[in-house]
Design a protein that fits this description.
The protein has helices at residues 3-28, 41-65, 72-96, 101-120, 135-139, and strands at 127-128, 133-134. It is mostly helical and 143 residues long.
C-alpha cells in the first residue's frame, strides 16, 4: 500500500469519525460528553455548538480526501487544528486536572496521529498520476 493510499484512507476515516462525533454532540448535548451529563444548559449549548463545528471539520477532511490529489496544504492545516486541540487538552490538564479517562485516551490519539498526517501530507502530491505509483516505488529497483 502506498503512502498516498494510506493518506487518503486516514483522511476519509478522520472525516467520517469527526462528522459522526460532531453530529452526536449536536443531537445528544451533555450526554455525548463523558462525565458531563449533569453539567447544565450552558455546557450543553457550548457542546452542541462545538459539535456542529466538529462536524464541519469532518466535512473538510472528507473534501480533502475526495480531491484528485489530496491537497498537502489542507492536510497540514487540518492536522494543525487537530494538534492544537490536543495542546488545548494538555493545557486543560495542567490548569484543571485530570479529565475522564476517555478524554486522556483521545489526547494520546491526537498527539500520535497529528504527526502522522504531517508526515503523509505530501504523499499524494508525490504520486505519479500516470502510473499511480509512489515516487519512492518508482525509484526502487525491480524485485
Amino acid at each position: 500500500m502506498t503512502k498516498a493510499r494510506i493518506l487518503r484512507g486516514l483522511a476519509q476515516a478522520m472525516g467520517y469519525a469527526c462528522l459522526a462525533i460532531g453530529l452526536a454532540h449536536v443531537l445528544l448535548g451533555n450526554q455525548a460528553i463523558p462525565g458531563a451529563g449533569s453539567a447544565g444548559p450552558t455546557v450543553d449549548s457550548l457542546g452542541r455548538f462545538l459539535g456542529a463545528v466538529f462536524a464541519g471539520y469532518g466535512l473538510a477532511w472528507l473534501w480533502a480526501a475526495r480531491q484528485r490529489t489530496v491537497p498537502a496544504s489542507a492536510v497540514r492545516a487540518l492536522a494543525g487544528v487537530f494538534l492544537l486541540g490536543a495542546i488545548g487538552r494538555l493545557l486543560s490538564l495542567a490548569v484543571a486536572g485530570w479529565p475522564h479517562w476517555f478524554q486522556v485516551a483521545l489526547t494520546v490519539l491526537e498527539l500520535a496521529l497529528a504527526p502522522v498526517f504531517f508526515w503523509l501530507a505530501n504523499a499524494d502530491a508525490d504520486t505519479d498520476t500516470d502510473t499511480g505509483t509512489d515516487t519512492e516505488e518508482r525509484a526502487a529497483p525491480n524485485r
